[in-house]
Design a protein that fits this description.
Elements: H1 2-10, H2 21-38, H3 46-55, E1 58-61, E2 71-74
Antiparallel strand pairs: 1-2
Helix pairs in contact: 2-3
Length: 83
């Protein structure tokens, strides 16, 4: 019991674990499948689908999720210049 408590208390001071390539690929695949569901016209255009994914600017944030899990934060483009 004590070791679990000590690990919990020391977790914020430990270096972040790098994101595994398999986890990054799984997250990218999931996001692309959601984009195709929302925008069905992207299903037949892989170049446009990749561009839509890149336009979202997903950034991994290690340790921000529940239990210290990695979370992908979506950064939307600032459209204030169009106004």
């Amino acid at each position: 019991m004590k070791s679990g408590l000590v690990q919990f208390l020391l977790r914020p001071f430990q270096p972040d674990q790098p994101l595994a390539p398999a986890d990054r690929a799984a997250a990218k695949n999931w996001v692309k499948r959601r984009l195709v569901k929302i925008f069905p016209e992207l299903a037949d255009d892989p170049v446009a689908l990749e561009q839509a994914y890149r336009d979202l600017s997903l950034e991994p944030r290690p340790g921000a999720g529940e239990g210290g899990a990695t979370v992908f934060e979506m950064i939307l483009p600032d459209n204030q210049q169009d106004r």
